[in-house]
Amino acid sequence: MMDKPRDYCGVFGIADHPEAALYNYYGLHALQHRGQESAGIVSIYYDEDKEKNVMPNYKDFGLVLSVFNKPKIFKKILKGRSAIGHNRYSTSGSSKNPSNIQPFTVHYQLGNLAIGHNGNLSNAKQIREAFTRDGILFQSTSDTELILHLIAQSKKNKQIEQIIDAVEQLEGAFSLVILTDDALIAIRDSNGFKPLALGEKDGAYCVASETCAFDIIGAKYIRDINPGEILIIPHNAARNKISPENLKSFHIASKFGATSQCIFEYVYFSRPDSMIFGEMVDKIRRNLGKTLAKEHPVNEVIQSRTSTRPVIISVPDSSNTAAIGYASENQKMGFDCKYDIGLIRNHYVGRTFISPGQKSRQQKVRTKFNPVNGVIEGRSVIIVDDSIVRGTTSQYLIKMIRACNPAEIHFLVSSPAVVSPCYYGMDFPSPEELIANRFNRDIKKIAAEIGVDSLRYLSTDGLVHAVKEANPSGDDYCTACFTSKYPVPVKFGFQKDENELV
Questions:
Q1: Residue 205, C-beta contacts closer than 8 angstroms, at least 6 positions apart
Q2: 10-260 to CATH, choices 3.60.20.10, 3.40.50.1820, 3.40.630.30, 3.30.1360.20
Q3: Among 20, 37, 67, 491, which residue's Cβ finds the most Cβ atoms within 10 Å?
Q4: C-alpha to C-alpha distance for 486 and 463, rounded to whole angstroms
Q5: If DSSP codes are grouped into helix, strand and coil, which group holds residue 117?
């Protein structure tokens, strides 16, 4: 999306399966929404000629389908029974550096190691400065490389001890997949910011940022990797028929209290057919829509009275289920309304699409969405969207919908106003670029800016209540982008720029 926060990446891994690299390809394809700028896969196999394990990799800029576009990549390059993969989104500037494409690989005194990272380290600047003082050279501007250096520089004697030692020095958000000569290792930070799940396919274990990556290969979801867990899956786990209860697991202690899972994963990032943090995203989003209806019912939103029922439309695709939840709850409360498809999304517009002679954001919005005139004309229209960031895309959408001559347009958001940047793995604009801040959080002024008759947000309490009502796991959530309350301190001097990304 042109005016939505972006998640940094998705990770996948599978241990001890004859189609390891191919399943990574499918898994990354299912996780394409988490990062579209580059993709990579690393596998491991024993080279009899060299008499040692080798870790071939294949990665490049572009979508998964365009990067892995030749069968020989899987037959001749990415050989082996274990592999990890990574989709990446980055900030502008660093996105052009091929050294930042993950997974990263290294060969050091204790063997081979590859790593893929979803998240963002809040103490990356301090770690990098310490290494720089020691004369360590860097190949990339990614904070993921810092994790490799922490492992390689550890004074511990065993590799797993070095990995634990490195992880204990990290702060912020990190869901990691690590490939070694002996195992696939899945790690989730102790606050559990980003999702990471364990699955099983043909007796082989796999891990992924979202369970939709399991569905595409027919894998069974087992459980989430727990916050603070380091799960070790040996390469021979499938052949030894190791049960998930017997996989070796370590836990790192929390430095910053309770869990703080990213609530925006439910609001926008994750696919609705995924299970994250122990619950289906579709169920959560429907409940967000229902809670939105309780806070802002149709009869309080609509101002004019027409002969037709008010129509509720979504901004496809991430707000579809929230809009359905909003409509169904209003109908349950006795308020006459109809959910309909008022915007058609063109799914075949690439991220680099530029129309001839027209480079404006407005033309890009028009290329991606088109209103359905018959659904909108003469009707009172309620648009349900998941978030507003800068507001530019919303503004252009409203102009398109206005051209269909509706009686009135109201904009409802199934999350609170975004007021703060994220330092844990999302790409939000700077605070002054956020529309809520530009208009000092004045709802009427924001509504006038985007061109609607009224604007309403879901309250922060309503958001948290809706999520916990649908997923009463007892875990807490990070709401920093809505509240400016950061669960893990951001170190002095940390900034989001072209030198900081994953």
A1: 14, 15, 16, 184, 198, 199, 222, 233, 237, 238, 244, 247
A2: 3.60.20.10
A3: 20
A4: 17
A5: strand
- Specify the pLDDT at position 303: 80
Helices 361-368 and 392-402, axial angle in degrees (round to 10): 60
pLDDT at 95: 61
Catalytic positions are: 9
Helices (H) and strands (E) in the chain — how many of each? 18, 27
pLDDT bucket at 79, cuts 50 / 70 / 90: very high
pLDDT at 308: 80
For the chain, give every residue range classified as CATH 3.60.20.10: 10-260
How far, in Å, CA of 471 to CA of 329, rounded?
A: 19
Query: Looking at the predicted structure, is the pLDDT value of residue 252 above 50?
Result: yes
Contact between 132 and 126 under an 8 Å Cβ cutoff? The reply is: no
User: What is the distance of C-alpha 199 from the center of its chain?
Assistant: 19
281-483 carries CATH number 3.50.50.60? no
Whether the predicted pLDDT of 351 surpasses 60? no
Ranges of CATH 3.40.50.2020 domains, the chain: 281-483
* Residue 485, CB-side half-sphere exposure with 13 Å CA sphere: 7
Tokens of 192: 């559990």
